[in-house]
Amino acid sequence: MSNNVRNIVIAGLGGQGVLKASDIVADVAFASGLDVKKSEIHGMSQRGGSVSSDVRFGSKVFSPMVPDGEADFLVVLDPTQIEVNRAALKPTGILIDPSILAGYKLKSEKSINVALLGALSRHLDFPESAWITAISGHLAPKLHAMNFAAFETGRNA
């Protein structure tokens, strides 16, 4: 990982695990020795409304908010949130959305957040073991096998 700050925006609807996904990304970066800042916007998340979370990491990060047009990655858990959040993505940024999972079957739709983190992980220079450790730390043991499988699906998508 270079010294420059990486900007990730994760967006979706309330109940999809946006905040859990951003916590996992933040933990992976922090465990790798980077400075990490995170912020979140809940909106009407309790009712299925828009939720987004910014994660920034690098050798030194001064602000938790990703400036508009500066996200290196936009991870969108629900297709309805793509256009709502597209302004966050820089012109050379990468959109990761559920369409990349077309043709793959997840054991549970509830693990789409972890599946898309699997896809994101292919673009970041962190060992797969760091992702597995972070996922384990944020989910109940009974959910580990299903989410490890979802993560692998995303990595392979």
TrEMBL record:
The entry's keywords: Oxidoreductase, Pyruvate
MF (Gene Ontology): oxidoreductase activity, acting on the aldehyde or oxo group of donors
UniProt signal peptide: none
InterPro entries per the UniProt record, alphabetical: IorB_Oxidoreductase, Pyrv/ketoisovalerate_OxRed_cat, Pyrv_flavodox_OxRed_cen
Domain of life: Bacteria
Record carries keyword Glycosyltransferase: no
UniProt protein name: Indolepyruvate oxidoreductase subunit beta
Species: Paludibaculum fermentans
